[in-house]
Amino acid sequence: MSVNWQDSPSLGNKKPQGPGIKPPAEVSMACNHRNLRLSRHGTTTMMKKTPILAAVALAAFAGMAHAGTTTFQAINTPDGPVLAGQNGQTLYTYDKDARHQSVCYGSCAREWPPYLANPSAQPFAHYSFVMRKDGQRQWALNGEPLYFRSADKKSGDITGQNADHGNWQVARPA
């Protein structure tokens, strides 16, 4: 990777001026399995990998949390913002579920498909999993299992709001 200071939007093609300020130079970076090498005008500086690895690990951890958030999105509806799955479909909670346990199976699960997590998904913030009887992991918000409604056809549909005598509710963004 190389960076030319002249291409910097903040500096444009201006050269820094003043005592002790050197003209812009090209900076390049190279990395191997043991260290990171920064070079400026042929001068090489060796850096230990530990601080770099710590920074990379921290960035990766932050990225995992952020990547988890792409599993959910807020969708605006006439009823206000609702939580939707990665596919843009509204998510619902069921009042008859026990905390951290789904009771919606069979015909219930056909009308209200559970929001299943892919094998590499990781819980984050208020989002966790409940284990279904078949061993699949279902996303949950604050311990409440999340479902889609089969009657919802497009992003923003909320046909399940207050269904079944008010037992189904749209999930709201956390």
Q: Your description of this structure?
A:
There is one protein chain. By secondary structure, the chain is an alpha+beta fold. It is built from three helices and eleven strands, in the order ββββαβββαβββαβ. The chain has helices spanning 49-69, 107-111, 163-166; strands at residues 2-4, 26-31, 35-40, 43-48, 72-77, 80-85, 92-94, 127-131, 137-141, 144-145, 168-170. It has a four-stranded antiparallel β-sheet. A three-stranded antiparallel β-sheet has the order 8-9-10, with no helix packed on it. A hairpin with a 2-residue loop joins β3 and β4. It is globular, with a radius of gyration of 25 Å. The two termini are 39 Å apart. Residues 1-16 and 21-69 have low confidence and may be disordered.
What is this entry, summarized?
It is built from 3 helices and 11 strands.
What's the story with the biggest beta sheet?
A: 4 strands, antiparallel
Task: Name the average pLDDT.
Answer: 74
Low-pLDDT ranges: 1-16, 21-69
What proportion of the residues form beta strands (DSSP E)?
25-35%
Overall, the morphology is: globular
Strands of the biggest beta sheet: in what spatial order? 1-2-3-4
